[in-house]
Every structure is written in C-alpha cells, then in structure tokens.
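Section 4.2 – Deliverable D4.2 (structural model, holo form)

The reporting period included a commitment to supply a predicted holo structure for the target in complex with 5-phosphoarabinonic acid. Inputs used:
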Amino acid sequence: MQKITIDISKTAGFIPDGAVLKLEKDVLAQQQKLHDKSGAGNDFLGWLNLPSAITASEIKTIKETAARLKSKADFVVVVGIGGSYLGARAVIDALSDSFDHLRTNRQNPVVLYAGQNIGEDYTYELLDLLKDKSFAVVVISKSGTTTEPAIAFRLLKELLEKKYNTAEVKERIVAITDESKGALRTLATREGYQTFVIPDDVGGRFSVLTPVGLLPIAIAGIDIDKLVEGARDMEKTIAPGTPFSENPAAVYAAVRNLLYQSGKTTEILVNYQPKLHFLAEWWKQLYGESEGKENKGIFPAAVDFTTDLHSMGQWIQEGERNIFETVLSVEKPNHKVLIPSDKDDLDKLNYIAGKRVDEVNKMAELGTLVAHVDGGVPNIRIVIPELTAYYLGQLIFFFEKACGISGYVLGVNPFDQPGVEAYKSNMFALLGKPGFEKETEAIRKRL
Ligand code: PA5
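Output (structure tokens):
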C-alpha cells in the first residue's frame, strides 16, 4: 500500500531558508508531549491511539448494528452537530456514489442529517419526507443536551412513535453518547435503546474513529475495516521515532506554523473533487476549534476547485496576501470518462478529445498551483493515491495528529473549546431558559 505524502516545496521563498529544519526539534518535542500526556488538555488524548486500540469485537458490533438498521430502514437519519456528525459525513460523501440517493438499485439506506442546524424549513421538509418512509435514527451527542440535535431528536422520536409500536421504535433508534452521564444516556437506558459509548477522553472533533463516525459510515456501506487499517498504518508512520522528514504530520504542523508566523493567517484547504467538500468541513472544525483561541490561530477556510476558481479565484490570485493553500490532490480517480470528439468542434474542445476528464482536472490543478504561487500564495500539497476507505483512514489520522502537534507549537490547548459556550448562554437567556433570568435583561438591552 502507498502512503499519503506531503509536498512543501512550493512554500520555499515564503518562509525563511532553513526555518523548517530549525523548528524540527521543537515540533518533535511537541509530538512527544502528546505521547507523554504532559501538555495542556492531556485528559483528552484518547484519540491518539484509537486506530490501534479499536478491537475486532467493537468493529463487529458496529457492523452488526449497521446491518440491522440497513435491513429495517430505507433512510437513516444521523442526528448530531459539529464533531458528532462532520467526520461521518466527510467519509460518507467522499466514498459514496454522488448520486446514490437518486438510484433505484441502491444497496444501502440513504443517510440524511439532522440536528446540525435549527432551520425550521429544513426540519419541516425532513419530517415531511420521512412521514411515509421507513426510517431509523442514530442520535449522537456526548453531552446529550446540545440544543440543535436535542430538538431534532425530539421531533424524529415523536414521528417514529407515531409510525411504529414501542418495540419497533426501540429497534430503530441507536444512541451514541457518554458512558454513564447526560440526558441521552438517561433516556436510552429508560427506553432500552442500543447504545455506543463516546469515550470520556475523546473530544467530539477527534471522534470519527469511534462509533460516532464508524456506525454511520458502516450504514452507508463503506468498509470500516479498511478505514481503520488506513488509520492504523498512519499511526505507525507518524509514531514517535519516525525521523521528522518522514513524518508528514510533523512536517505539516511545522510548515503551517511557519507560514502563520510569516503573516499567512488564513489557510485554505483546496480540493479538486467535489466529494471532498465535507472532508474540508470536518477539517475546518478540527483546526478551527482546536487552534482558534487566546486571540491566536490560523483561520481555516476551504474551497472546491475548479468550481470556486470561478468565484473565489480572483480573491485568491490578487486579494490580500495573508493566505496559503493546502491542496488535497487525489492521484487516481475511481472511474474513467473520456472527452468525446465532435465533428463541428464549435466549443473548440477537440484538442483534448480522447483525454480523460481527470487529465483536464490535473492540468487545472497544476496551472492553478503555479498561478497562485506566482501570485504570492504558498502551497502545501497533500497527495492521496486514491479515494478509498484505506486512504481516507490515513488522511483522517494524519490531520488529527498534525492538529495536536500544531496546536502545541502554536502554544494553545488544542483540546478544549471554551469559546463555543458564549453564543449558547446568550441564546438560552433570550429563550428564557430557567436559570438564565439575570442574563436575559442584560442581553435584551444590548440588542
Ligand atoms: O468538537 C466538539 O466537541 C463539538 O463540536 C461537539 O462535538 C459538538 O458541539 C456536539 O456536542 P455533543 O456531542 O455534546 O452534542
């Protein structure tokens, strides 16, 4: 099997000569801090050995549960927000047929998402779709009280209870939550739902390789053994003891911090495969929530190319020079489509007739790389041999480990998210939640 690789050659000239080598010792020391559990947030490091820690029997139970839900339901709604849904969606979108939900010969249920927003129209339309469909729910919340998924789950549970008897409702709900505490654990115990545990020492955004990600991914028909195998191989590749230059996570952490120190305060994750859109959403949460604190942190943004070259391309080429790009470059597509020849050639495309669509995509990628570097945008390239479960597993663990190292290099605790609470308490006060009476008056005056 090949490995995901990183190419930093197009950052030369944007960071001082020799700076990467100078940072090498510090980066490896920060990595060691993760493994020694001697840094900030060290009670949230359970993700660090998740790939090798997952047991065959855990995977078997996840697969059996997925098979049961698949046999029962045409639609499975994954209820969760942030780290409780983005990893699953990233992998499912990356590895599923883009039009599977429209095919009549589908092998797997359609996976839908709820509780990741509070849009009333979205909620109405989802419930309206499901009212005469066979569906099941996987509800994922570590705390069990997050407003968005709690509202969605209340509504979906009510709909299930209207459609099915108590025993059947129980068969159609799986809860993934804390081992012993929280509202969802209490409800699941009372109602007898099947449950999976989100380990105490794994934060939401690092939880894709727990049942949080693995169950929805298995329901979508994706090979979770291969995903875990890829993550496991990456865990070995970037383990302590690997020389810096052979450790892509250490190299990525070093270079993005050096670019940040050179004034490149926004990182744009670029893909040339629309299937990777949600991988970028997952990555944005991983890095944004881990690093954006104490008035520090690279702003993580993302674009889908070539689509966004026709909207954001101008800004990237000539706007403020505070950005760098990290390109997810997939070497080999899974399918082959040739561009046909046309006798009239009105669109003047015959010069590429007979070529693969991917060849055009690759030339767009290389052309953009040179144009953006010429325009003052440094470029990191992450090369993924193919879009398969195995390589996605590698990629996920690579980004997680690099995030932990990078946060430590930046000097923050990458494993907390204190800032997320600010909007919540204001919202609770405005909604009149008991216990927030004092804040309600103060906030109303500010509006
Ligand atoms: O990464 C995180 O910790 C957050 O994104 C949470 O996953 C998100 O807020 C959902 O929380 P919970 O799973 O408790 O509902």
